[in-house]
Amino acid sequence: AQKITQTQPGMFVQEKEAVTLDCTYDTSDPSYGLFWYKQPSSGEMIFLIYQGSYDQQNATEGRYSLNFQKARKSANLVISASQLGDSAMYFCAMSAIYNQGGKLIFGQGTELSVKP
Amino acid sequence: DTGVSQDPRHKITKRGQNVTFRCDPISEHNRLYWYRQTLGQGPEFLTYFQNEAQLEKSRLLSDRFSAERPKGSFSTLEIQRTEQGDSAMYLCASSLEWSASGELFFGEGSRLTVL
Fold first, then answer.
1. Which residues of chain B make contact with A103, given a CB cutoff of 8 A?
2. Residue A13's pLDDT is what?
3. What single-letter DSSP state applies at residue A59?
4. Rounded-to-integer distance, Cα B57 and Cα A78, Å
5. What is the average per-residue pLDDT within B15-23?
6. Mapping DSSP to helix (H, G, I), strand (E, B) and coil, where does residue B84 land?
7. pLDDT single digits (tens) B84-96
8. In 10 A of CB A95, how many CB atoms?
9. Residue A50 host element (H or E)
């Protein structure tokens, strides 16, 4: 069975600094996708970044990058130059099949607070 | 706005009553998902449809829960004889079957409070 683990319930970061949110996963399938979503207090899940299990390079989207270490089964999210608007819950998630829409398994989330 | 829309956004009901939530996905998406999220937790998968066919149901989906997507477009999630433990945010998402990322697009959710 697939599982996502986020061990940091809460994190604080100073505005303009970088922060890393941890995510480890467990699966026996060779084909999978890894996602990060942001959930502000309004409740909507906002897609941030995706990494496929066969992708050779780490994914990047603007200030977001995914540090994918396949052997360690980790998919940490790095946010550079934090902004006050980055304060939110962040969820790591996994899909069963690379590049196919399918159900996502989510971790428990990390609450990020950005300090001015 | 062509995103996923959910209705109602908030519902307060008494224990034992039935409630129904509606989700309108992005029009070209053939997959539709329902998730439940309780306070402080990540979303938990409930069920998903490909077009009008319900392809998978979680064990979380008890007999009191039923979901439909009759014409492969909008979907409804009905909870019968609500219990206080049903209080949660119910999230709907949609996706294409095949895409570069398999990303799910979420609505803003329907928050249920059972008194």
1. 33, 45, 48, 56
2. 97
3. P
4. 34
5. 98
6. helix
7. 999 999 999 998 8
8. 26
9. strand A46-52
What 3-state class would DSSP assign to A8?
Answer: coil
From chain A, pick out residues whose CB is under 8 angstroms from the CB of B104: 35, 45, 47, 101, 104
Give the three-class secondary structure for B71.
Answer: coil
What separation, in Å, do the N-terminal and C-terminal C-alpha atoms of chain A show?
41
Q: Is A86 helix (H, G, I), strand (E, B) or coil?
A: helix
CA pair distance B100, A55, nearest whole angstrom: 11
Cβ separation B33–A103 shorter than 8 A: yes
**Model pLDDT for residues B57-114, shown as the tens digit of each residue:** 888 888 999 999 998 899 999 999 999 999 999 999 998 877 667 788 999 999 999 9
In three-state secondary structure terms, A85 is helix
A103–B48 C-beta distance less than 8 A: yes
CA A35 – CA A77 distance, rounded (Å): 9
- What pLDDT, on the 0 to 100 scale, is given for residue B100? 66
pLDDT for the residue numbered B1: 55
H-helix or E-strand containing A115? strand A110-115
CB-based contact A99 B45, cutoff 8 Å: no
User: B31 near B7, Cβ under 8 Å?
Assistant: no
Tokens of A56: 């050779």
Residue in B29, B104, B108 nearest the CB of A104 = B104
